[in-house]
Amino acid sequence: MKNILSIIYIFLLIVSIISCGKNKETNKTAQNTNEQITASSDNQSKQINNQKEFFDMKYVYKGIRVDKAKFDEELKNVRENNEKTKRNFDFLNRKFANDDERKKYSIEFISNVNYDPFSETFSSLDMYNENFTDYYADEYLYVEQNLALKKAREELLKLSKKDADVYLALFLSHFATDSLYYFEEEKKYLIEWKKAGGTNIAMMMREYDDANVYSNKMKLVDYIIKSPNSLRAEKLVADAYNNGFYRYIVKDTGYIDLFNENNYSLTSIEYEGTARMSSLMIIEEIANTNIMNKYIKTYINNRLANDDIQDYLEYYQNYYNPNTVYCYNDLNNLNLFEFKKNTFLIESTMNGLVNMHYYNPEFMKDNLYASFKEIKNYNFRLGDIDKVKSAEINSISTNDLKDYTKGSQFIDSSNFDIEQYLSYVASKMYYPLHSVSFFLCDINNDGKEELMLSGEYISSAGRGGIAHYTLLLKDNLEIDFDSETGLLINNPDFQVLECTQKIYTENGKNKILLLDTLNNKACDIFIDNNEIKNAEVFDYITYSYQPKLEWKGNILDGVPEGALKTDASFDMSKAENASDKAIVSDRTLRVADKLISDAYFAKKETLDKKGQEELLEQRRSEIKAIQEAKGDIKKIETEMLKILNIQ
């Protein structure tokens, strides 16, 4: 019994100084099951029950894997020449004399970041840049802003007396850069804001915002306060779109955990070319691909088949290349949405929502999270114009045009010069016409038929499209831009690409609807006995969207469950020495630490007591070598490669 107790005592003593894989044997199952995703539902249940407190890598400076001197120079240069980064750095180092200063300057800082946050955008050209110094500096500055917001939040939480402004600032300290990533906390702050009598959201407004923006932001605030705890991401997105506050909760660039693995990277939506082809870009992180490949092959069940991977690409490069395995439609618009510590990608068209995606290495083959059913509500009093009865017209052949015109420059000796006429139309309208058809219609409802034409032009520029024309003409065949009726019907806003026109009849009267399908605008024109009775411009269709959850896995607290994280094996919030901090700062090292720790405990289970003692001694030696690296990332990586037996 004494020997057993001695072994246990020695084991606990040694483990207490181990920082990489510092889990005690008795806590091994509880601590490590959280990290590893398996196909077993039992293990998934254990993960939920034993989940560690969330440690957000958003607030951790990344380890520097570029030339340190060049990095320092770039950081210094940006901080000195960019007012927003200077603002963030200054606040991070500000001291407060009392609660009045603490409240005043913290609220002021949060409000300023909400107005104008530090935000770097990049293009597809950046993807081919081999010098990562600029990107590391940008990521460092994003973290600096996050830490400054965190400091402001913590300073406000210290106040013994909190009013509505304080609670609104606490909400904005997250919302300013996180959107709704910390939804529960944000909801809590807004509930307290309302209890404190808060009615003024001026802190959320910008100088150029109008009354409509104020109303929509109030809708957002009220929605969050009233939302149920079970609120899911797709429901929130649909409600936001249907109620006018969608654009306040999405973003198209930032420092984002795109893969939902607790690892942040510079991410951006890019639109290229005249067709505005969309792409989701992420700055490639400097990593040891051998370690990353081992991580993928060890923990990811939903791995790509070898046939799916090009010979010259690694597993790692395939998993973390947004253009390799993602299935969004690159003709659609894209937005990023953060909610309940998860990130989603949203597809939409000019009309509205299409799909939501959820990305994580474990779910690479099945990332469609939700789809949206489009519901059309016609604002035109007769509904769908395509189903309305057309007015009667009398077609005119080009041979007979001479009988309906006076003094036309396009008719010579009774012959119609079609080429000259098409050239004339092209000079007057944005698009030319491939062909024209002439007709007569009593569009003025005065008993006299007017001369009109219709035609179309098929464009291949950009994403392409068709321009439809229905024009009112003068007696000499020129386009009527002189009369009031002519100016209405021939309005260039409704006679261009993706526009259609229809002359219809209602109660015995001829009317014309001009429709811009691209911008969802319509103009309903009614002229009675040469008097304009109506020329209303309105949104032709009001769209609303009904979400449908497509995710086949489990949903926990409104978001997908089972995402694989790139956390280290130990409690990262308790990292104290240089090497532990270096491991936390670098995804490659975090992943390697987990691989080493899990392999250690797996092997330990197979050994007798003597073998376990020998294994523990070996592990102690490995940890000592890592600690002696004193935070040097490359030295730590070298030691970990030896332990993992990776060349």
Report on the architecture of this protein:
The chain has 647 residues and is of the alpha+beta class. It is 38% helix and 20% strand. It contains 20 helices and 21 strands. The strands form six sheets. The chain has a six-stranded antiparallel sheet with strand order 1-5-6-7-8-19, covered by helices on one side. A four-stranded antiparallel sheet has the order 9-12-13-14. Helix 17 packs across helix 18 (587-604). The two termini are 44 Å apart. 35% of the residues are buried.
List the helices and strands and how they pair.
Layout: H1 2-16, H2 28-32, H3 41-49, H4 68-81, H5 83-92, H6 99-115, H7 133-157, H8 164-178, H9 183-195, H10 211-226, H11 233-243, E1 250-251, E2 253-256, E3 265-272, E4 277-282, H12 289-299, H13 315-319, H14 322-325, E5 333-339, E6 342-348, E7 353-358, E8 368-378, E9 394-396, E10 411-412, E11 415-416, H15 418-428, E12 435-441, E13 450-459, E14 465-472, H16 484-489, E15 499-506, E16 509-516, E17 521-528, E18 531-539, E19 541-549, E20 555-556, E21 559-560, H17 578-585, H18 587-604, H19 609-627, H20 633-644
Helix pairs in contact: 4-5, 4-7, 5-6, 5-7, 6-7, 6-8, 7-8, 8-9, 12-18, 17-18, 18-20, 19-20
Helix fraction bin: 25-40%
Q: What would the average pLDDT be, to the nearest integer?
A: 87
Helix/strand-derived class?
alpha+beta
Question: Which blocks of ≥5 consecutive residues have pLDDT under 50?
Answer: 1-50
Strand order of the largest sheet: 1-5-6-7-8-19
The total count of strands amounts to 21
Helical element count? 20
How far apart, in Å, are the first and last alpha carbons? 44 Å
- Report Rg: 33 Å
> What is the percentage of strand-forming residues?
15-25%
Profile the largest sheet: 6 strands, antiparallel
Shape: elongated
